[in-house]
Amino acid sequence: MKKYNPKAIEAKWQKVWAKQKLNLAKDGSKKPKFYALIEFPFPSGDGLHVGHMRSYTALDVVARKRRAEGYEVLYPIGWDAFGLPTENYAIKTGRQPALITKQNTTRYRKQLQSLGFSFDWSREVNTTDPNYYKWTQWLFLQFFKKGLAYKAKIAINWCPKDKIGLANEEVVTRSTGSGQVEVCERCGTAVEQREKDQWLLAITKYADRLDRELDLVDYPEPVKLQQRNWIGRREGAEIEFKVINPTPDPLPEGEGEVGEFGYHTTDPNTWRVLQDRALEMRKSPTPAEKILWQSLRNNSTGSHFRRQQIIWKFIADFVCLEKALVIEVDGDIHDYQKVEDEERSTFLRESGFKVIRFHNDEVIKNTSLVVEKIKDQLKALPFGEGLGGVIKIFTTRPETIFGVTFIARAGKADRFTGEYAVNPANQEKIPIWEAEYVMDGVGTGAVMGVPAHDERDLEFAKKHNLPIKDVPMADQETLTKIGAKPHTTYKLRDWVFSRQRYWGEPIPLIFCAKCNEWQPVPDKDLPVKLPKVKKYEPTDNGDSPLANIKSWVETKCPKCGGAARRETDVMPNWAGSSWYYLAYLMKKAIGQRPTSLGLASSNIKHWLPVDWYNGGMEHTTLHLLYSRFWHKVLNDLKLVPGKEPYAKRTSHGLILAHDGEKMSKSRGNVVNPDELVKRFGADTLRIYEMFMGPFGQAIAWSEDGLVGSRRFLERVWKMAEKVDKKKGKGVAVSDLNPKLQSTIIKVGEDIEAMKFNTAISSLMILLNEFEAAASIPAQFFKTFLKLLSPFAPHLADELWHHLGEKKSIHLAPWPKGEKIASEKVKIVIQINGKTRDLIEVSAKISELELKQLVLEQPKVINWVKGKEVVKTIVVPRRLVNLVLGD
RNA sequence: GCCGCGGUGGCGGAAUUGGCAGACGCACGGGACUCAAAAUCCCGCGAGGGUUAACCUCAUGUGGGUUCAAUUCCCACCCGCGGCACCA
Asked: Is the separation of the CB atoms in A784 and A770 below 8 Å?
């Protein structure tokens, strides 16, 4: 037999397997299905590195084992090719991103093929292929049509020097003398925040399910935990604190009484008259009032409105007390009442109210615009200012309410507002503060300060000399009585889905000024293709470069046919990867016009869910969460089966560079497998990556052990020559079988548990035994090869054929190990818990006989001499421990 | 600060979940083969002591504890990596 020459045999077998279509998954197969998935790579200019290989090899091992176990296995591959590195390279070189991508994928494909992964190449997908992103766009439109996509003003990172918007990944934190500063990754200029209208996906509407339905899947606990922390579900209660004693008190001192809402009116009689009138007005509103009330009631603006509200001697149409906003809807009658209106507006303004007016016609004809204006106002106003309002507080510990000594709402500096609130539990008057540590956008933007039970509250109380009250906990009844409503909040924010960039999927929406609405691009017009541009940089005002292409932007409204403009933002990198596990199943459909039917094909039903998905921990809170979200939405639309896309998730540890840093081109520490494949062979590299350490743990790349893996394979190669021929001294053949059987069991279990390092180590041990044996039956060695074949597929197939087999080793069934209880067992003898001797006895020995035998051992006699055996512990088949007295 | 993961020979790491600590591999030392080197094969390889043998003592980040017995369980702490970060 020739020398082991991996270069020759690896290329040979790769061709044979491709020709025999060994790795193509059959859609209609009656075998049980197994869908193995790895995170498809981003084809960067650096080429594949040894870190990619770890995950791909691991699932390749699993996939090959499953095929041998009789499953129809789908192990697909594709390219997640939209993204910044390509775009930045395009900016630098002026080359087209599509061409750069093509070049990179060609290189990656070659590299992956040289490593012998059993991917089904017939299903290769590419997120930048118009056929692919046509579907990404269509799926986005399903979100839009379901009301899950909306536009809102969101701050983006803006580099004032480069004059472009930056993705979060392009912003780095730098430490300066005065603290941490966010700077532009390229030029180092401090990043500013700029508000831009952006598309968002309402992932928060699925927060609860994304949390709860983690119970349905087999993910590592740390992954579940990290997702749960990210979603940040908090159960608690919402409690209203009434605000009293408004400042400055602008009201004339009448006979006065504290009214229902805690502020003064003139005198009781006037108040009663006003109340009657207000009630009457509420019963018979004007058409405009009626329409507007529909939009304001039930907290639909996010704030609580009252109508026909008495304020001093006036009745205001709509009032939001917590924001101190008054909305007046005027008819023509006001033309006669100018003086009164003046007086009332002046009074309200002086009392701290903001007053906005709309005309009846305005409200009736353009309700949505009016409501938008009101919402904008509400947004601009601080919370809880004004007269007789309430402050809503979300707390996870409502039972501590008796210990509340202050209220603090979000503010830029610590400051007493001069206002007080009433603790609904004990009617105590407590001060309202603004505090730096309270954040807008968390909970209700205000906290009840309980210094005795919260560290930050305590710190604040100490700093500002506020009382600290330690008290018994409130019971459920008290909480109900004070109107505490059970409430759940989430840390998760909606997903900002707009990028002012070029290299992404155009968002397929059109704004028509006439319809005053965003219109979806009709299915028949998809994909909205990325037009070719000359410059790939975002524009001076931060818009996508697409905004500069007039001919592309200007289009017709799909609804009314009038002049309209396209959305110029593109989708984030995470869009295409949110559904790629479906794309692999859509072989033919992907080229066709997107429809619900095309998606809900039998293939998708057949293959879902993904049975085993391996990927990196770094994707836990982004990609993994996003794609679960998409799947749930698609499931609600009855487009895909099942609540969860991935039945089982595992994580690999990162392979770091020699220096222990993350591999990246900018650090110049990327290790490319090509040269290693040339020097050692793909099989050696695969074995080494699986052997170098525990799969789930990060490990620094080192080539020191590679030679050991190569030696192992060389020894396997040599062993093939000795099979059934070797004569002479050594272990008897029959002694090999128990070891072989236990290795079969061990390797099988280890692969399932992703303990590849110990699987390989047990194969090495078996080989060591083979080498020591007098002769090796061919069947034994074939079984060994089969166990080795998922790890070193080329070498295994080559030797398999040497032994006379005609079909590929990868078509042979996975061996079943037999548990053979050995006749003899080794028993550890301990004296006072310390190992003193080791004896070999029959496995069938009785406990009594064993104890006797132990006491007869010369070493034991020596240790026991002159002492008493107080206690004897016997662990069957394992150990005897003698406890001696003094 | 909080959450998660980890800490075992010169190095990567094993240890059937409480039962021989250091499997397997790398590196290293000695030997065989060779004119020589490489490759290969054999032997050794945690530290200290010991008549360099048998054997003994110590040793799994540190300090305590539980147990006949602890790398494994409990308590307190130290260090490294990753994530979140005034989250009410």
From this structure: yes
Q: Strand A406-410 relative to strand A429-435: parallel, antiparallel, unpaired?
A: parallel
**pLDDT of A492-525, one tens digit each?**
989 989 988 899 999 999 999 999 899 999 999 9
What are the two backbone dihedrals, phi and then psi, of residue A678, each rounded to the nearest 5 degrees? -60, -45
> Which is nearest to A882 in space by CA: A834, A827, A826?
A834
Residue A621 CB in 7 A reach of strand B: yes
Nearest Cα neighbor of A581 from A37, A56, A118, A57 is A37
DSSP line for A521-576: PPGGG---PPPP-S--SPPTTS--GGGG-HHHHEEE-TTT-SEEEE---B--TTTG
Q: Does at least one atom of strand B sit less than 7 Å from the CB of A879? A: yes
Backbone phi, psi, residue A825, to 5°: -130, 155
Q: What pLDDT does residue A158 have? A: 81
In chain A, how long is the greatest CA-to-CA distance?
A: 121
Q: Which of A109-123, A467-481, A587-601, A844-858 is least confident? A: A587-601
Of A352, A406, A415, A359, residue with least CA distance to A381: A352
Rounded distance, CA A149 to CA A203, Å? 9
Output the distance from A67 CA to B16 C1' rounded to whole Å: 28
| pLDDT (0 to 100) of residue A265 | 43
The string of pLDDT tens digits covering residues A260-309 is: 333 334 455 565 667 777 777 777 788 888 888 888 887 677 677 888 87
Beta strands in A691-795 (DSSP E): 699-700
Spell out which residues of A between 825 and 844 contact strand B, using CB within 7 Å: 826, 828, 830, 832-836, 838
Give the side-chain half-sphere CA count within 13 A for A199: 26
Residue A792 and residue A786: Cα distance in Å, rounded? 10
Q: Is strand B in 7 Å reach of the CB of A617?
A: yes
Where are the extended beta strands (E) located within A89-191? 120-126, 149-159, 164-166, 171-176, 179-184
What sign does the CA torsion over A263, A269, A270, A274 have?
A: positive
Read off the pLDDT of each residue in A165-178 and give the average, rounded to a whole number: 67
According to DSSP, the residues that pair with A187 across neighbouring strands are none
User: pTM of the predicted model, to two decimals?
Assistant: 0.85
Q: Which of residues 428-447 of A touch strand B (CB under 7 A)?
A: 436-445, 447
| ipTM score | 0.96
Q: Is A561 left (phi over 0), alpha (psi -120 to 50) or beta?
A: left
User: What are the phi and psi torsion angles at A406 (to 5°)?
Assistant: -165, 165
Give the containing element (helix H, strand E) for A131: helix A130-145
Most confident of A71-85, A150-164, A270-284, A838-852: A71-85
Amino acid A248: pLDDT = 38
Task: Count Cβ atoms below 10 Å from residue A383 Cβ, excluding itself.
Answer: 19
Torsion of the alpha carbons at A724, A729, A731 and A736, rounded to the nearest 10: 0
Q: What is the DSSP string of A421-449?
A: EE-TTT--EEEEEEETTS-TTSTTSEEEE
User: How far apart are alpha carbons A336 and A319 in whole angstroms?
Assistant: 23
| Per-residue pLDDT band at A728 (split at 50, 70, 90) | very low
Strand B, nucleotides covered by protein (CB < 7 Å): 3-6, 11-16, 19-21, 23-27, 39-42, 56-57, 68-70, 81-84, 86-88
